[in-house]
Write a structure and sequence with these properties.
The complex is a heterodimer. Chain A is of the alpha/beta class. Chain A contains 6 helices and 10 strands; from the N terminus they run βββαββαβαααβαβββ. Chain A has a 6-stranded mixed sheet with strand order 6-7-8-3-9-10, sandwiched between helices. A 4-stranded antiparallel sheet of chain A has the order 2-1-4-5, covered by helices on one side. The two termini of chain A are 18 Å apart. Chain B folds into 2 domains: 180 residues, no CATH class; 98 residues, Alpha-Beta Plaits. In chain B, 70% of the residues lie in helices and 8% in strands. Chain B has a 4-stranded antiparallel sheet with strand order 2-3-1-4. The relative contact order of chain B is 0.17. The chains are: A alpha/beta, B alpha+beta. At the A-B interface, helix 2 and helix 3 of A face helix 7 of B.
């Protein structure tokens, strides 16, 4: 879904180098408009995760500037970083879930950090968990769920606070074909509701038949496919 | 961030790591108990020093050739000084009578002795409300400088020893307070550090979903404050029980009873509780600063 030219993610000549001479990104330019669903592909180690990590300020670029929703990330103070991360929902390849806590507790965490009380967040959590098809497992511990179910919990947690931007880092990397299709469908549904999505994957099958924009990260450069 | 949420999270953390928290609280309690022991000892030593010190009088011996008409003005001068409770003039005759009384059956020793050979004197009691050994010395020194005075006696050695012992105990209390509180803060901060280590994944996830440092640190700081406060309260209760037990044993003698020994005053106890809580929070804040970077 495209809803105009208003860019929400913008990279201007972004560089990321690691000592001594590893180049993850070299003068990368990119503009993603509000409401776009963009695939980011490239072989393992191409720098997809590094690029995503820079977008939620878990890493700093060594050059250039990154602008998220009109804000240059280099101008953000440490105390402003939580505000950025509330705008950007992140789905991790390794899920980053609290395995000894329940589905409800994991998903509710994103709302708890906003200061919402249990009675305020309860209905929202139930609604989102139902949306990812896990309402019958709301009070199960995450460790008791399958890999696909865990990934859906991670998605629910990333979107429960309705962030305008969703970054998905290989969200289907650990899933079988059926679960992968489910996750992609879920992401498309979120996009249809207005979220801008940057979906990093090395699985070319996910976008071969799609009308979506596809970017390839190669030798530190971003190419349009 | 609403305090209610931080409080709830802190209680949940304590519940989930109950054994660690209880052990830490016990260490804080034992640390505070040692400090309370020193404090009670120092406080009561001061009471004992005051009790005996107040009994001491300054005796100002006047020159024998001093004109009698100067005595009333000297008396008025002493009475008008700060920190004087009472003044009594002892004439040469009265001093001689006291000497006769002292010798009782051996009065013949004083036969032929001039009844005026002893110098007249003033016996001065220091005001109990403002008594301290240093003050006794400074007042005595003032008298010694007067031209009419021959000699001043005030149990100098006793006062000096009492004062230096009292100072040593006070210094020990202050040193032990600092040392023990730093130790308590260190223990609590290390416990919190271990908890942070154990929950690094959770903290990382909280950071990634937009938790502020206040949201992450708040429950840890509150938990350490509760440990500091509950540990010191437990120490006060235990200290009070020990004090009552020891008091029951030693107050068999009239002398000890007359000293009117006491436990710590309420304000002192409140200070221990608050300072313990604040030190534990400060120690934890320092430990967290190194762990929680965005």
């Amino acid at each position: 879904m495209l809803s105009g030219d208003q860019s929400v993610i913008e990279l201007r000549e972004v560089q990321k180098k690691y000592a001594p001479d590893i180049v993850a990104l070299e003068e990368a330019d990119l503009t993603i408009s509000k409401g776009e669903f963009v695939f980011l592909t490239g072989p393992s180690g191409a720098g997809k995760s590094t690029l995503l990590r820079m977008l939620y300020k878990a890493e700093e670029p060594t050059g250039g500037s990154i602008i998220i929703d009109g804000v240059d990330l280099s101008s953000l103070s440490k105390s402003q970083i939580p505000q950025l991360r509330r705008k950007v929902g992140v789905i991790f390849q390794d899920f980053k879930l609290l395995f000894n806590k329940t589905v409800f507790e994991n998903v509710a965490l994103s709302l708890e950090v906003l200061g919402l009380k249990k009675n305020q967040l309860s209905s929202r959590v139930r609604q989102v968990v139902e949306g990812v098809g896990l309402s019958d497992k709301l009070h199960r511990k995450v460790v008791q769920l399958s890999g696909g179910e865990q990934q859906r919990v991670a998605i629910a947690r990333a979107v429960v606070n309705r962030p305008p931007i969703i970054l998905a880092d290989e969200p289907t990397g650990n899933l079988d074909r059926k679960r992968t299709t489910e996750v992609v469908a879920l992401m498309e549904e979120l996009n249809a509701r207005g979220a801008t999505i940057l979906f990093a994957t090395h699985d070319e099958n996910l976008f071969t038949d799609t009308h979506r924009r596809v970017l390839r990260l190669k030798d530190g450069k971003i190419e349009e496919l | 961030m609403p305090l209610g949420i931080i409080f709830k999270r802190a209680l949940r953390d304590i519940r989930q790591n109950l054994v660690t928290h209880v052990m830490t609280t016990i260490v804080v309690a034992l640390t505070c108990l040692v400090f309370i022991f020193f404090s009670v000892f120092s406080l009561n030593l001061q009471r004992i020093a005051d009790h005996f010190g107040k009994e001491l009088a300054i005796v100002v011996y006047l020159k024998k050739d001093m004109p009698q008409d100067k005595i009333p003005s000297l008396y008025q001068k002493i009475v008008g000084m700060d920190g004087i409770e009472s003044v009594r003039f002892v004439s040469s005759e009265e001093a001689f009578k006291r000497l006769e009384k002292y010798f009782k059956d051996e009065k013949e020793v004083l036969e032929g002795v001039d009844p005026l050979f002893l110098p007249p004197s003033f016996e001065i009691q220091i005001d109990r409300a403002v008594y301290n050994p240093g003050r006794v010395r400074s007042i005595a020194q003032k008298f010694a400088d007067w031209p009419e005075v021959q000699k001043v006696q005030y149990g100098k050695e006793w006062v000096d020893r009492l004062e230096s012992f009292s100072k040593a105990v006070k210094a020990a209390v202050v040193a032990s307070a600092v040392l023990l509180l730093v130790m308590a803060a260190f223990v609590v901060s290390n416990t919190i550090k271990l908890t942070v280590y154990a929950r690094q994944d959770e903290i990382e996830i909280m950071r990634l979903v937009g938790a502020t440092n206040g949201f992450i640190q708040g429950p840890f700081l509150l938990a350490s404050f509760l440990q500091g406060v509950s540990g010191s309260l437990a120490a006060i209760v235990a200290g009070l029980f020990c004090y009552e037990y020891v008091l029951n044993i030693i107050t068999q003698t009239e002398l000890i009873k007359s000293l009117n020994l006491q436990f710590l005053p309420p304000l002192y106890m409140l200070t221990i509780v608050l300072v313990s809580g604040i030190f534990c929070v400060a120690g934890t804040a320092m430990a967290l600063r190194r762990f929680l970077t965005l």
